[in-house]
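HUMAN:
Sorry, I am quite new to this. Are you able to go through these amino acid letters and fold codes? The numbers rather puzzle me.
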Amino acid sequence: MSNKKNTGLHAPGSGKRERYIQPSILLGLFHRPTYGYELIQTMQRFGFMEGSAPPGMIYRHLRQLEEDGLVASEWHTEGAGPAKRIYTITADGREVLGLWIAHMEEQARRLDSFVAEYRQAAAGSASGTPEG
């Protein structure tokens, strides 16, 4: 790579990771109903967010998902301490998660194909054989 300033170029993988918050929330709730804090911890495992997920952003998405009918919530007041809201994925949420999974599988297929083409071209150029 040259030392020229690359205006308009972004580091690989620097796209908006926020686009995967919706499927991450839905997958976290697909496992089991849970509280917001536990959901945030579960989402960390999916690898779409660097560092810790900002709780305000996650709760904002949860509210929107609830308004859209993809998530339901109710207050649990059992035990000592403050009431906690527990979130559950709805049937519509499961359907949307399935659409996300299909989209991600197609993206993964395209990425695999792209990488395979690069590796084939790189192997050809390393051997001195031009690929046409």
